[in-house]
Structure formats: structure tokens, C-alpha cells
Amino acid sequence: MVSDSPATRVDIHCHTFNGADLPVEGFVRRVVLRDKDWPGWVKARLARWADGLVQSPGLGYEPERSILQMMLDHPRRDLLLSAEEQVADERFNLQVEQDEAALAAHDPATAAYLGLAPRQVRRLDRGETSAFVKFARNLASSRLDVARRLVATYPSVDVFTPMLVDMAYGVGDKPLTTVAEQIDLHEKISSLSIMGRLTQRSALLLPFVGFDPRREQHAPGALGLVQDAVMHRGFAGVKMYPPMGFSPLGNDEPEIDGILDDLYSWCETEDVPITVHCNKTQGASNASNDERSDPAVWATVLDKHPGLHLNLGHFGGVRRTANKPFWPTEIARLARFDHLYADLGCHTDLLQPPGPNAYAEMLRGVLTGAGAAMRDRLMYGSDWSMLLEHPGCEGYVEAVSAAFPEGEHDRLLGGRALDFLGLGTVLNENGHRLRDRITALGADPATWFAPRR
Ligand SMILES: [Zn+2]
User: Do 299 and 267 meet the contact criterion of CB atoms below 8 Å apart?
Assistant: First the structure.
């Protein structure tokens, strides 16, 4: 299937939440730093530092809601937008620079700031801590600044689908903002992007709403909130994170399976795409949760719901692992499902110097023979801002493109994502909803999607 709008560039996997939208203390300790070879108490202190940095009332719901509402109510001139973007940019760079310089100097003030003794700071890997500082500082920004930073980092991308995540049940910690508040703020940012009031250049943000079936189990109405976000608030799909401790189906509690089945049926009826974390990592609390997003289990979901547009995020892995079975190979064999996709978010082994790349070669190898049909389902995704932890992440579009021949770039960098979203050749219910919303907000869908033939 060839898309009508080959020039549109889509980042199908990215994030514009800030730290107040995440259960940060639990997330940093059990997810971000889980695989770092640092003592547990160092991780705990870094997690508390990051938590203190972002769980401040200034980054919560109300202050940002009023700013976004003001921006929605009043047209802004280009000059003002560009000045604001520049100021936010300079402030961020200065903060990161100061943190990095202080860390490099091993100075006692930074050590105290991180809650560590100076000799303990010296024991940390400086490159890693610098990247961590950048990552944490970004999460300590307003969502507006995070969204603008994403757009500025990837100037060649037209459409971004930022994923909200619901991790509270997995990491046993709570974000500062509720799911409803997050939906409200990210809807406003999406609307601003449609109205041309978010950034100086034209970029479209179509968010995905996070869902954990355990929230519906414990607080009925959570699924309704997700459905409302998609049907009436401009959300383009649903994001799920099984490694937080539930399976796509086949859970011990039949109630969880019932809730998931309801979600899948509704998504099938309304053409709502689902993106899931599918990589043997990030298992909350214990390593067995790493395996929760098993492609074999997703195949049972698709057997039952063949119309579901499903994106197995990260294409099953971000590096070659000795673990059998190798998930990318497993996923590549599932292309018999017409609407199964995968994205290349956070495949940082592609961020190498120009020239032959062993990882790219391995990827192409997976997509031959029995896996050949999957090659036309692979989508560009960055996983920014998670990618901020990796030096050179601003070159990710180029790095991913370089792994495939030029003739495939239009489909890889956008065409397949438009098909996944229902905005490609076949305009499904989801595509109609999104285009209608753009029109209703006074913009022309052709700004981002070529006119349909
Ligand atoms: Zn992600």
C-alpha cells in the first residue's frame, strides 16, 4: 500500500510529558536507573533528587493550564513565539551547562545537591551522569517547553505522536497530575500545534493517551476517560506498557482480561491504534515483567481482533540479545496480520559514526526471508525524550534513515505511520476524526498531509 502523502515525516513514538506527569521517584529508580551498575543507595538518592526537581507545584496542572488557555484564547505573533522559544532554549542550556560543569569539577555543592559525598560523585561515570542531568532537566520543564524542544530537535519531522504513560500501578508511586489533568494539558498543546500557536514552524502534535487496565479495575471510569480523549479531545491512539505488570491477555485475574478485551473491541470498532512498549526491558519490580509484552501473546490478541491497528513499540528490542526467542525475529513473522506495525524508537546502536553499521545490518537481516513482509511495517520513532540520555540523539532521523536504502525512506519516515494512524490511503474512522478536528480548529489538514487523490 502506497501512501498519498509520501513527503510527510512522522515521529510515531515520542514523549512530551514532564516529570509531574510521571511517578518519578519510582520511575527513575525502577526503570531509568534499573540497569545502571550503581549501588542501590546511589540510585535511590538520584531518584529522590529527580523527584524533588519535578514534583513541584509550579510544574503541576493549574499553572500550565492557565498559560495554555491564555495562548489558546489569544493569537500570538510569530515574533513573540520565536522569542519565547529562544528564551526557553537558552534557560535550558544554561541549567544543563551549570549542572554538567559542577559535576565535572566534583564540587561539594553539586555533591550536596545530589545528596552525595564528593568522593561518591567521583565514582560515577561522568558521561552518564551528564546525560542523566540533561534527561532530568528536561523533565523539570513545562510540557510546553518540552513539546517545543521536541519540535526544535527534529526540524525535518512534520507530525509527532507523543505518548502519555500510566505507570503508577507498576512502580508503586504517583505522579503529581491525574490522568484527566494530563489529558487536558496535552489536548491544549495539540490544539495549539494545529492552530499554529505552539512553535514558529508548522508541526502537528497528535498525542496518545496512556492506559493501564488495573486503573479501570480499581477506579471504574478510567477506560471511559481514555475513550473520551480519543473521541472528543484529539488523541490519536492509546499507549500501553505491559512491563509495568500486566499481560496483553492471559492474566491471572479474568477481570483484567475482560477490561483489555473491551478496550481492543472498542479500538477495532472505532479504528483506534494502540502502541505498546515491546522490548524485554523496563519490567517494574521484578525481571519477569520484562517478558510481559511477548509478541506471541500479542498474536493471540490479533487472532481475536484482526482489525486492531497495533504498533509493537521498539520492534521487540533495542539491541541484539542472547535471550531466546529473539523478539524482532518473532515480530517479523507476524506480518500476516494486516495492521501490525513496529517502531524503531530508541535503537541507539544506530547512532554510530557514518559507514557500515553492524546493528543496521542485523536489523535488515531480520527483515528478510520469513520476515520480509514486515519490512514495510517498520516505522520511524525516536522515543525522545528518553533518547536524551544518549549523546548525538538529535541525529536520530538521519541515523535511522541510513540503515535503509533511500527508496524506502518516505514509507519508513512517514507513509507507514500514516497508514497506522488511519491517515494514509485508507482514511478510516480515526483518520476522519483527526482531520475533522484539524478543520474544526480552523486549519487545513493539507498543511501536514498531502491532499488525497
Ligand atoms: Zn517510549
Answer: no
Q: How far is the CA of 183 from the centre of ligand 1 (A)?
A: 17
- What residue segments make up the domains of the chain, in order of their start? 10-20+142-447
Dist. CA 197–CA 60, nearest whole Å: 22
Cell numbers given for 77: 505573533
Ligand 1 center–CA 416 separation, angstroms: 18
Q: How far, in Å, is the centroid of ligand 1 from the Cα of 385?
A: 8
Q: What is the 381 CA–ligand 1 centroid distance (Å)?
A: 9
- Quote the Cα angle for 327-172-38, to 5°: 70
Distance 313 CA to ligand 1 centre (A): 8
47 CA to centre of ligand 1 in angstroms: 19
- How far is ligand 1, taken at its centre, from the CA of residue 439, in Å? 29
Encode the chain (453 residues) as per-residue pLDDT tens digits.
444 445 899 999 999 999 999 998 888 777 777 777 777 887 788 788 778 878 888 899 999 999 999 999 988 777 788 888 888 889 888 888 887 776 666 656 555 655 556 566 666 666 666 777 788 789 889 999 999 999 999 999 999 999 999 999 988 889 999 999 999 999 999 999 999 999 989 999 999 999 999 999 999 999 999 999 999 999 999 999 999 999 999 999 999 999 999 999 999 999 999 999 999 877 776 778 888 999 999 999 999 999 999 999 999 986 666 567 899 999 999 999 999 999 999 999 999 887 889 999 999 999 999 999 999 999 999 999 999 888 889 999 999 999 999 999 999 999 999 999 999 988 999 999 999 999 999 999 999 997 654
User: What is the chain's Cα-based Rg?
Assistant: 21
Assigned architecture for domain 10-20+142-447: Alpha-Beta Barrel (3.20)
pTM over 0.85: yes
What letter would DSSP give residue 381? -
